Amino acid sequence: MAKHSTIYPVEEELQAVQRIVSHSERALKLVSDSLLEKEVPAPTPAPEEGEEKSAETPGRLLKGVMRVGILAKGLLLHGDKNVELILLTAKKPTMSLLERIAQQLPKELALQTFSEDQYEVQAHPDEANIVIFSSKEPKMQVTVSLTSPLMREDPAVDRDKQAAGKAAEKGVADVDPADVLKKKKCLEYLAALRHAKWFQARANGLQSCVIVIRVLRDLCQREATWGAMPAWAMELLVEKIISSATGPLSPGEAMRRVLECVSTGILLPEGPGLQDPCEKEPTDALSSMTGQAREDITASAQHALRLLAFRQIHKVLGMESLPASKAGARNRKRRRDDGGAGGGDGEGEGEGKKDKKDDEGVEA
């Protein structure tokens, strides 16, 4: 699609994103190694070195770095400057741990930059993340969010553990640190991890799905009406609509199918809703949308579908109309069909040739 080629990131932007992400990932690995050395006491002489190394592994505070959001899903658009990473911790993340990481990151980032790249690091404890800014154009930023699987507690599991006498086994019940990061934020970051894994498994391999989502992301950024739809809900909706088709769809056909589906009122409050496949409990991915926002998007989709029927989809996509080369070909075809005089001449010419052949046959 012509629109997709204009919103896709240029090569310079892709290289800048790859550069800052790779530098950040390597720097976080060095920070993890540094924290491990400080947490684990100096090893005493022992004959079995293998046992010492295996014993150090559980003591690592930072377990891994995962790409999430538009970076992991391959949905980057031209002009996107911020990408996200999730830093998993072995224990519940705390403000003190976040500050320690933020203090060590600049030094480790400096070891990764062999060119003019320079980075600024800012800690945001209230948001449970650290932001890394690049100084080289195009300027990019990476948001590193801290979370841990321990933040997602299952009440049923907790009851089972209590029934089994967990407190009696340990002697003292586990108590969360006083400066633990906000649970709501950490749960949001865990959900982002699940969303990225689901998208890679279900949407990335679906023909035209990623292209249509990119176009709709651009529409959500340009139009306040569409911007009210949560990004995750939009991705879920497009995947379900395209995967339910009987066969592969071109980007244009897939876009039409999405508009047709939204036009039917699937987003309206009395509609079926949109089940979130990444949650254990039944969850509507559209629950954060107001009734007015749902009606506005439905009406906008209906209007876009009418424009599409009259070959004016460029007004919806925010682009110039395509060159009328194909229209010229259609006009030439209509002139051949509508040219009554020309058609008559052609038929008479054919009849004249036939008569001439007949006369030659008689003479022979």
Which descriptors would you attach to this protein?
364 residues, alpha+beta, Beta Polymerase, domain 2, Poly(a)-polymerase, middle domain, five-stranded mixed β-sheet, globular, DZF_dom, DZF domain-containing protein
| Total separate domains | 2
How are the strands of the largest sheet arranged? 1-2-5-4-3
Distance between the first and last residues' Cα = 63 Å
State the assembly state of the protein chains: single chain
Helical amount: 55-70%
User: What do we call the CATH homologous superfamily of the largest domain?
Assistant: Beta Polymerase, domain 2
Number of strands: 5
| Rg for CA atoms | 31 Å
CATH class of the largest domain: Alpha Beta
Q: Could you please say which CATH topology of the largest domain applies here? A: Beta Polymerase, domain 2
Let me know the largest β-sheet.
5 strands, mixed
Q: N-to-C SSE series?
A: HHHEHEHEEEHHHHHHHHHHH
* Mass-distribution shape: globular
Q: Please report which band the strand proportion falls in: under 5%, 5-15%, 15-25%, 25-35%, 35-45% or over 45%.
A: 5-15%
GO cellular component, one term: precatalytic spliceosome
Pfam families: DZF_C, DZF_N
Domain DZF: 1-360
Protein name: DZF domain-containing protein
Please give a structural write-up.
This protein is of the alpha+beta class. The chain has two domains: 1-41 and 57-154 and 178-200, Beta Polymerase, domain 2 (2-Layer Sandwich), CATH 3.30.460.10; 203-319, Poly(a)-polymerase, middle domain (Orthogonal Bundle). The chain contains 16 helices and five strands. Strands 1-2-5-4-3 form a five-stranded mixed sheet, sandwiched between helices. Strand 4 (129-134) and strand 5 (141-147) form a beta hairpin. Residues 38-58, 272-292, 322-364 are annotated as: Disordered.
